[in-house]
Amino acid sequence: MAKQTGIISFTGKLGNLIGYRRNGQYYLRTMPETVRQTAATRHASRDFGIASRKGKLVRQAVTPHLDISRDGSLVNRLNKTLISAGKSQLQMLNGFRFNRHAGVENFFCQQPMMSPAGVVTIPAQTLRPEGTATHLEVKVIAVRVSFLERRITGSRTASVMIGMDTRFSDIELDVALPGKGTLLVIVQVRSFNGPLATANRRFVAADILAVVPPAVKKQRVTVIPDVKKVPRYKEARGKKYNTTLCTPHTVLLHQRE
């Protein structure tokens, strides 16, 4: 490992050198002549690549709708969760926090719920005091992502402002989003003091509320009935004709005999 001391620093590959940054400093290392990988290493590398692609799609679909500051650990945390989820356990994303410093459960005594029809309900309650906050903004984000086609197929949002000083009735936010791909529903909460949103990361949250995989179409199975094998002409000669066989081929054999 060598430290870059020139005027121009770089990251990435340059010939047989690799530049990288660590703790604000730039370093160099040479590429290995050969890379030895075990089967387990190749498998882990493949899983990481798949999770990275999925994570990038999720971030591209969700983060444009978020109103919270960027979390520097988001990429690694999301990739780690997707690696654990594998191909068929995307529901493990339920509860994932886009802001690691706070969760939606911190703001409500009774947590938001989503119906099969795509309606998010915040049960009636009185909000907990949150510092100097006078209001809470609740924003629900629904996105559809096709991991198979590697594209975002749709998005929809709905929001409401809730006063901190009064008990409110059930609030329903409709974010039904039909279409192709996996449905992700995110609840974002921000504290407001009058017209101003707080910049304190402990008073904002954005969590995944629900993950709905795409519906799997049932494949129609066509059953081909068994066909009784007709003996060849030489095998059929000298044998008693089976009148139960009525195929043109057997009739021709009978005529020849």
UniProtKB/TrEMBL annotation:
User: What top-level branch of life does the organism fall under?
Assistant: Bacteria
User: What name appears for this protein in its UniProt entry?
Assistant: Uncharacterized protein
